[in-house]
Design a protein that fits this description.
The complex is a heterodimer of chains A (460) and B (273). With 460 residues, chain A is of the alpha/beta class. Helix content of chain A is 37%, strand content 15%. Chain B has one domain: MetI-like (MetI-like fold), CATH 1.10.3720. Chain B is globular and about 70 Å long. Classes of the chains: A alpha/beta (460), B mainly alpha (273). Chain B: Keywords: Cell membrane, Membrane, Transmembrane, Transmembrane helix, Transport.
Chain lengths: 460, 273
């Protein structure tokens, strides 16, 4: 036993050296060098939001800031490195965190003054948790909106605290091989919902016993994400005129939900029991069409690289331009911690200006993230104009609505409603009413106001 | 004959339960050699159809797997050793010394086991923040270095040691320090083994507290690292299974080392000697 304890203690000592040595770089440790050259001979970047690299930040003295991100750490690190090349006295530690729990830990960390992260990525559904800790951007809001039109939806008290660098929305993905097998061509890409039902029926297959063996369209486990936004085509906004209450139990949402249910129960182009997940069914080539957001391009590359797929825009009732095709959501620019030191905030403000003015940065963000660039001048950039989402949705992106920094309660409760309707036989109106009641309580607690009224065609 | 049939039936049931228990683990290990497409395939096979070691080769790309692994080993071993020592010490005092208020102290120790950790996590977080212990390993070790469960187990174990042995040691000139370290501790191997396994496992799989306290990536633990495979839109199951397969090796090694004494230790803790 004595030998065992001696061994354990020795092991602890050895491992403590291994475990503690060379740890991460806390914000107190500066690795940068003194920068004495203000004029670097570099060009000024940007259109309205401009960035002149020929200046010193923090008077050229070494300084380190932390930037918390979730996922795509390499992409954000390369942006930080591009900035550090201009300002060698600055070190930006990009710290990757798991998505799960990120917004539990972040508000706590932002209270720790200079010890917390100076920059942090934001997801707009958690805006209400973070607003108290964010410093507004020190950039003219007119300039921001001129370059990034969607920034207007992020104006709060005359300031912009964060905005979108890229936009994403839903579109249909179709399996080109199954499409050809069914005798369909590019001319059959549906523009209306009637045409959609027609091609979906052609793409649906049953065996001799009447069991479905191929779904024309599959939305299993994605009912909620699909139906939120479809209401715009069925005559209702998602929120009331004052932006405070949901219209989840309104006629528009009821009709949208009924339409999705009819696709399965009336037109039999899919089935609630045909696979539990729309995406996996598409990966396996068992569903010919699915509706998913821009991120699905990356998921297909990872999980089903052999699927030969194309995309098309969400159809409309009559093939004409609707009040709104659907909703969009933005990937948000980093926030600046208002509790950071003045020196840290100066660096962060300078970095954000660089982040927004640099076309190279914005192109990389949209390319790697499968996004529509929020900077409108980049819509025709050669690197982006042929990406699936820009090609499919880009021309009409002004006809998509951002409902606002919608708390996750909306999606969560509509998920429950969808499952109640599809699997528990609950009446659709009752299920939506239950969802609406819960959502409204949560919205009141979150002090939420919808941004729908900022939509350019809101009065139509 | 009837006894034999019952025994056979019992073995069959136990074997079935064993298979059901082990199957998900075996499936996970085998799936770590599959591509993500095959893992998510509707047509499932137990054995990989196109075996690949890419999930293992790419582990370092998601995060610094080796560093996280070593960090977890360090914390788990450090905490386990400390808990064993503090549990034995407290268990010895409560089990073998007679003094006023002993039962009240033991009652308090038992009460700490009945307070859910989720109730204490907020005040604990605030305390550690105020003490400036954020992003230090002390913040991971300090709150768990004394375990109510460990003290309870070791008190029961200590009570099974005959008083005569301790008296004999004292009469032979052994001081209290020597008696505890040279006589009592070696007699508690079974209880120590049980605590070692439980404590190592708890620390190894702990997620929320290390996630909240550690900011630097270089200091982060493996349980937190594993969640990096779970993205916002999708999960890299292949990578997750490969990392999990490797991450459970230390737990298995600890169990193999201590298993012989584990059952005896738990049994001894369950009854008063």
């Amino acid at each position: 036993m004595k030998r065992f304890f001696s061994f354990c203690l020795a092991l602890v000592l050895v491992l403590s050296l291994a475990g503690c040595s060379g740890g991460g770089n806390g914000s107190g440790t500066s690795q940068g060098v003194q920068d004495t050259q203000a004029d670097k001979g570099l060009e000024i970047m940007g259109d309205n939001v401009t960035y002149d690299p020929n200046h010193l930040v923090n008077d050229g003295a070494p300084i380190t800031i932390d930037w918390w991100v979730w996922a795509t750490e390499d992409m954000f690190r390369s942006i930080a490195e591009a900035y550090q090349e201009i300002h060698p006295n600055v070190t930006i530690n990009v710290i990757n965190n798991p998505w799960d729990g990120f917004f539990t830990k972040l508000p706590l960390a932002l209270q720790r003054d200079e010890e917390g992260p100076t920059l942090f990525n934001i997801h707009n559904s958690y805006e209400h948790l973070l607003l108290n800790y964010i410093e507004p951007y020190d950039i003219s809001t007119d300039d921001l909106i001129a370059d990034y039109p969607s920034a207007s939806t992020h104006l709060m008290d005359g300031n912009i605290y964060y905005m979108d660098y890229g936009l994403s929305t839903g579109m249909f993905y179709y399996n080109k091989d199954l499409w050809a097998e069914a005798g369909l061509t590019d001319d059959d890409i549906p523009k209306t919902w009637d045409e959609f039902i027609e091609v979906a029926q052609k793409l649906t297959k049953f065996d001799e016993n009447g069991n479905m063996i191929q779904a024309g369209y599959n939305y299993n486990n994605y009912f909620n994400s699909t139906v939120i936004g479809l209401n715009y085509q069925f005559g209702d906004n998602l929120f009331s005129a004052d932006g405070k209450e949901s219209l989840v139990d309104g006629d528009g949402m009821k009709d949208a939900a009924s339409f999705l249910i009819d696709l399965y129960e009336k037109y039999h182009v899919g089935d609630k029991d045909f696979g539990t997940n729309y995406d996996q069914s598409f990966y396996q080539g068992q569903s010919a069409m699915v509706f998913a957001w821009g991120f699905f391009v990356g998921n297909l590359a990872t999980n089903a690289p052999d699927i030969n797929y194309g995309t098309f825009e969400i159809p409309t009732q009559d093939g004409k331009t609707p009040y709104a095709y659907y909703r969009y959501n933005g990937e948000s620019t980093p926030g600046i911690n208002k509790n950071a030191t003045d020196a840290q905030k100066e660096v962060a403000q300078d970095f954000i200006r660089f982040f927004l003015a640099s076309d190279d940065v914005q192109i990389k963000l949209s390319q790697d993230g499968g996004l529509i660039p929020a900077k409108s001048s980049l819509m025709e950039a050669p690197e982006l104009k042929d990406t699936p989402i820009v090609k499919t949705v880009g021309p009409h992106i002004d006809r998509y609505i951002w409902p606002g920094a919608m708390p996750s309660t909306v999606e969560n409760n509509l998920k429950i409603a969808g499952e109640d309707i599809l699997y528990n036989g609950k009446d659709a109106d009752d299920a939506l009413k239950t969802a609406a009641d819960t959502i409204d309580i949560d919205l009141a607690n979150a002090d939420f106001t919808s941004s729908e009224s900022l939509y350019a065609y809101y009065e139509e | 004959m009837k006894h034999k049939v019952l025994k056979t039936a019992l073995y069959v049931v136990l074997a079935l339960v064993g298979v059901i228990t082990v199957f998900p683990f075996v499936w996970m290990v085998l799936s770590s050699f599959k591509t993500n497409g095959e893992i998510q395939s509707i047509v499932q096979t137990l054995l990989p159809q196109e075996p690949t070691v890419d999930n293992y080769m790419n582990l370092q790309q998601t995060f610094d797997f080796l560093r996280y692994f070593m960090n977890s080993i360090f914390i788990a071993v450090a905490v386990t050793v400390l808990v064993i020592y503090t549990s034995c010490l407290c268990g010895y005092v409560l089990g073998k010394y007679q003094f006023k208020g002993k039962n009240i102290i033991f009652g308090f120790v038992m009460m700490t086991m009945m307070v859910p950790w989720s109730v204490t996590i907020i005040p604990r977080y605030t305390m550690f923040m105020e003490a400036g212990l954020q992003d230090t390993y002390i913040s991971l070790i300090l709150p768990v270095m004394v375990s109510g469960f460990g003290i309870f187990m070791m008190k029961q174990n200590m009570e099974s040691i005959p008083d005569e042995l301790i008296e004999a040691a004292r009469m032979d000139g052994s001081n209290e320090f020597q008696t505890f370290h040279k006589l009592v501790l070696p007699l508690c191997k079974n209880g120590i083994s049980a605590i070692a396994i439980f404590q190592f496992l708890w620390v190894w799989e702990d997620y929320l507290w290390p996630y909240l306290m550690i900011d630097s990536e270089g200091k982060q633990l493996l349980a937190v690292g594993l969640t990096l495979f779970n993205g916002r839109y999708s999960t890299d199951y292949g990578g997750l299974f490969a990392a999990t397969t490797i991450s459970i090796l230390p737990v298995i090694i600890v169990y193999v080392i201590f298993q012989k004494r584990f059952v005896a230790g738990v049994a001894a803790g369950a009854v008063k000697g």
